[in-house]
């Protein structure tokens, strides 16, 4: 049976000849839209126009996830929304498209991506180098936009920056290249700020640089022209004649004068004035934000493959353990380490759990029994974890539990309880799921100079 070939359309008027695969030409987007949906599109347009066309096509449900290549140059929007340049031999489009189609069928076990979150994950998962690209836009109040998120938003209008942060905390996306660091108004969030020098006393704009002199005899400081009399330098206060700089007088550091309150000062104060809401802020009070590209993280990829619903339910079950984000957990652990270094007590313990073969077991069990397994796991954990403990799930397999006020004996009790739970699970014959534990108690097991990251890495080694 011959492999199916994709239906390919070219959009554009140029005279480029395409060989290697059959294509249908459309001169503009209107005639393209009238035709039944194609499998692959080639945009034979200059970069800016291709970017515009892509924006429309990604909002169109028929072409939202499709492979769309840009044949001419690419602008930032093309990079953010397109699939790059087509392969030199268009015959290669067929296997690329078959791969794409296979993945599309696999996504979430065949469920079409309905929600915004799953639309974005699906889009990324369908392309080997898919990323959520930030694009600079001088017209935007925050200077950068995420075209992909805008195009896939439909009626929802999530705040791109907040949404990306949430996805990263949950582990679905990971941070890519850092593009920029912005300073934003804390009143309205705008990045359109004007930095002005003002008087540190009365905050007026009316300040000027004014060379001045300082009389050593009486200490008087005044603008230079007040000292000039008939071509000589005379102190206007004590009338001494100033001959030698360094012994009679010098130039004070205060070089600015306020025309409002007459204050003399060394450095003007800088104020960030928001051009959108009019509020003024000290520069160090502004909100700092990093602008990055984002990629699909390993956990996100797994979620696309294994099914969105399973992952969501699993996240919900584990959610009962009051999970902390990785950064929050690191912070908390560092704080505990500082406390125990300084005061030697109370002791605290840290336990790492690794569920070996978790992913394989879940997919072998199927959806329903998989849920049941996760639920019983969480139940066992809840028996072991106390209200005051804090947990962090860093991957599908690994969970950390931080137990304040718990010494080695306390840790041993928890370990024993968990081991019993694991035995019960094993007796219920659930696949090859295995529990590995790595424990730590401070200050006894504390190594010099070890911080949260180093400690977790050391215990991670024990988890194998
Ligand atoms: Zn002033
Ligand atoms: Zn003087
Ligand atoms: Zn503002």
Question: What does it look like?
Answer:
With 464 residues, the chain is of the alpha+beta class. Among the domains are: 8-112, Rossmann fold, CATH 3.40.50; 307-463, 2-Layer Sandwich (Alpha-Beta Plaits). Helices cover 36% and strands 23% of the residues. It has 14 helices and 24 strands. It has helices spanning 29-34, 47-59, 76-81, 93-106, 116-125, 147-152, 160-169, 224-227, 298-306, 308-319, 326-343, 358-384, 408-427, 452-463; strands spanning 8-11, 23-26, 40-43, 67-70, 131-132, 135-136, 144-145, 173-184, 193-198, 207-209, 212-215, 221-223, 228-229, 232-233, 249-250, 256-258, 264-265, 269-274, 280-281, 287-296, 348-356, 390-393, 398-403, 434-442. The strands form eight sheets. Strands 2-1-3-4 form a four-stranded parallel beta sheet. A four-stranded antiparallel beta sheet has the order 22-23-21-24, with helices on both faces. A three-stranded antiparallel beta sheet has the order 5-20-8. β18 (269-274) and β19 (280-281) form a beta hairpin. The mean pLDDT is 86. Bound molecules: zinc ion (ZN) (3 copies). One zinc ion binds at residues 199, 201-202, 204, 258, 260-261, 263.
Short note summarizing the structure:
This protein is of the alpha+beta class.
Strand neighbour order, sheet with most strands: 2-1-3-4
What is the name of the CATH class of the domain at 307-463?
Alpha Beta
CATH architecture of the domain at 307-463: 2-Layer Sandwich
User: Counting H and I runs of at least 4 residues, what is the number of helices?
Assistant: 14
Distance between the termini: 47 Å
Strands, count: 24
Oligomer type: single chain
Shape: flat
Structural class comes to: alpha+beta
What average pLDDT do the residues reach?
A: 86
Strand residue content:
15-25%
Cα gyration radius (Å): 33 Å
């Amino acid at each position: 049976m011959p492999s199916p070939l994709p239906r390919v359309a070219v959009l554009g008027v140029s005279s480029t000849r395409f060989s290697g695969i059959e294509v249908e030409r459309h001169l503009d987007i209107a005639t393209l839209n009238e035709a039944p949906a194609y499998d692959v599109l080639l945009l034979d347009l200059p970069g800016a126009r291709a970017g515009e066309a892509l924006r429309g096509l990604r909002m169109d449900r028929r072409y939202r996830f499709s492979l769309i290549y840009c044949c001419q140059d690419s602008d930032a929007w093309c990079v953010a929304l397109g699939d790059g340049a087509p392969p030199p031999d268009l015959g290669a489009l067929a296997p690329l498209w078959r791969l794409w189609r296979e993945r599309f069928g696999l996504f979430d076990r065949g469920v079409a991506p309905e929600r915004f979150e799953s639309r974005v994950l699906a889009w990324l998962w369908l392309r080997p180098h898919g990323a959520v690209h930030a694009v600079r836009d001088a017209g935007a109040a925050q200077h950068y936009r995420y075209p992909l998120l805008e195009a896939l938003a439909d009626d929802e209008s999530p705040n791109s920056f907040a949404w990306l942060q949430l996805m990263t905390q949950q582990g679905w996306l990971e941070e890519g290249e850092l593009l920029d660091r912005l300073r934003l108004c804390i009143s309205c969030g705008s990045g359109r700020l004007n930095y002005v020098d003002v008087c540190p006393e009365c905050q007026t704009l009316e300040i000027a640089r004014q060379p001045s002199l300082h009389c050593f005899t009486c200490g008087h400081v005044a603008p230079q022209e007040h000292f000039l009399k008939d071509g000589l330098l005379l102190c206007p206060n004590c009338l001494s004649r100033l001959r030698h700089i360094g012994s009679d007088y010098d130039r004070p550091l205060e070089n600015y004068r306020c025309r409002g309150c007459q204050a003399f000062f060394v450095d003007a104060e800088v104020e960030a004035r928001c051009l959108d809401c009019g509020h003024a802020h000290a520069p160090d009070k502004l909100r700092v934000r990093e602008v990055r590209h984002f990629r699909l993280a390993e956990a996100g990829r797994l979620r696309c493959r294994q099914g969105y619903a399973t992952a969501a339910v699993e996240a919900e079950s584990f959610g009962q353990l009051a999970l902390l984000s990785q950064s929050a957990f690191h912070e908390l652990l560092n704080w505990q380490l500082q406390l125990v270094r300084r005061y030697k007590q109370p002791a605290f313990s840290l336990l790492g759990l690794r569920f070996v073969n978790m992913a394989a077991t879940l997919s072998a069990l199927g959806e329903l029994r998989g849920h049941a397994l996760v639920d019983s796991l969480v139940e066992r954990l809840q028996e072991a974890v106390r209200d005051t403990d804090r947990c962090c799930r860093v991957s599908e397999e690994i969970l950390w539990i931080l137990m304040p006020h718990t010494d080695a004996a306390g840790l041993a009790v928890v370990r024993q309880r968990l081991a019993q739970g694991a035995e019960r699970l094993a007796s219920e014959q659930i696949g090859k799921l295995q529990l590995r534990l790595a424990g730590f108690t401070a200050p006894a097991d504390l190594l010099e100079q070890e911080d949260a990251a180093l400690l977790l890495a050391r215990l991670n080694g024990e988890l194998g």
